[in-house]
Amino acid sequence: MSIPELARQIGEIASLEEPVRRNLYFFVAGQAAPVSRDEAARGVRISRALAAFHLDKLVAAGLLEASYRRRSGRRGPGAGRPSKLYRRSGRQVELSLPQRRYELAARLMAESLVMPEAGAGEGVRAAARQLGERLGQAALEQAGPRPGRARLLKSAFAVLRAHGYEPTQDAQTIRMRNCPFDALARDYRSLVCGMNLALMEGLLAGLELAGLKAELDPQPGLCCVALRGRR
To answer: What's the pTM value of the predicted model, to 2 decimals?
Structure first.
C-alpha cells in the first residue's frame, strides 16, 4: 500500500471518530435499503440538518454512497423533488499496521485449486510464481525504456512496498521487514514461506532483474525470504 493510499484509509477511519457520524454510518449500513435524511435523523435521534451534514461528510469520505429517487413512485409535474438517499459504500476499508495482505494469500490459494495436476503446496507456489511474474512485468514497464539496474531496483522496491513487504537493502542483500501473511505463517510456515519464495522468484523473472536470487533465510521479525546477489 502506498503512502497516499495509507493516508486515505486513515482519513476514512478517522472520519468515524465523531460519535454522531459513527452512529449514522452504522445505522445506514444496517439497513436493507437506502435511507433518506429524515429516516437517518429519526434512527439516531438527531435533527435532520445535523444528519444531512454528517451524511454528506460520510459520502465525501467514501464510506457512504448517495443517490436521488422519488420515494412515492410518482413522475411528472407535482411529483415532488427526489429524495437524497444514502447507502453503505462498496469500498472496502481495511487498515493494518504493519500491513497484512490475507486477501492476496486467499486469492493465491484459491487459484491453486484450479491446478489439478499439482498438489496443494505445489499449486500455491505455482500461483504465487505466476503472480510474481505478472507483478514483475508490470514493474518493468513502469521502469521505462531500457532501464538500468538502479531503475529496476527502484521499481522492484515500489512493488514490494505496495504489497506490504517493507524492503530494505544492506550491502548485497535485500530483506523484507514485514511479512504480509504473518498470522498464516505462524501456523503454516512451510506453505507460506514457499509461497513467498515463489512470488519473489517470479517477481525477479518478470522484472528481468539479473544478478539477484531469492533465498529462504528466516530471521526473527523479518520475512523468510531475502534477495541476494548471485555468488
So the answer is: 0.59
Q: What is the CATH number of domain 102-229?
A: 3.30.1380
Fold of 3-88: Arc Repressor Mutant, subunit A (1.10.10)
**Cα pseudo-dihedral 186, 188, 191, 196, rounded to 10:** -20
The pLDDT tens digits for 11-34 are 666 677 788 998 998 899 888 789
For residue 206, count other CB atoms closer than 10 A to its CB: 21
Spans of all domains in the chain:
3-88, 102-229
